[in-house]
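INTERNAL AUDIT FORM
Audit reference: QA-55
Scope: verify that the stored structure record matches its stored sequence.
Auditor: D.O.
Record contents follow.
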Amino acid sequence: MKNAVIYIHGKGGNAAEANHYRKFFSDAYEVIGFDYKSEFPWEAKEEFPKFFDSIASQYSSVVLIANSIGAYYAMLSLADKSVEKAMFISPIVDMECVILNMMTLSKVSEKALYEEKVITTSFGETLSWEYLSYVRTHPITWNVPTNILYAENDTITSFETITNFANSIGATLTIMNDGEHWFHTEEQIIFLDNWFKKFV
């Protein structure tokens, strides 16, 4: 029986990105992109386990690769699943902090968000009281062997936040100097590939 690699994209990404990772695995692995529809964590909590179970039942083991918010959704919804190991690229590990930072940037108070319920920011993101409340009542607990790739110039997750998280779960943490949250330039992709080869 073969092994599976499930790739979970970030915001604005797609399942086809999984193709990039095929070269790192032998024929004993099948790399599968997850074309999820969830836009909220409670949707992911429903959708992700169903998909995972449908895949896991056909393979000996499962490796996860996840990007940005895809990693957050994976940790939130798949913590109790049998995952051999996880490779996280620019993972969002503290969603409450991300939301609070957006609120600060938009000068939106908790009181205002509670009263309005939904507020659209000037930079196109939507703030939601329901989302913030859900995140606070559903903390991440993640015990899977994990390798994390983080960029020095990540504007979504601070160095302190990612370091504390990596230490708390015993993950390896690799940092690309001058890198960005979205690994997309030639130099960044080479760095990502070298990191991947080292830990996969």
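Auditor finding: record pair retrieved intact. The chain has a mean pLDDT of 97.
Action required: none
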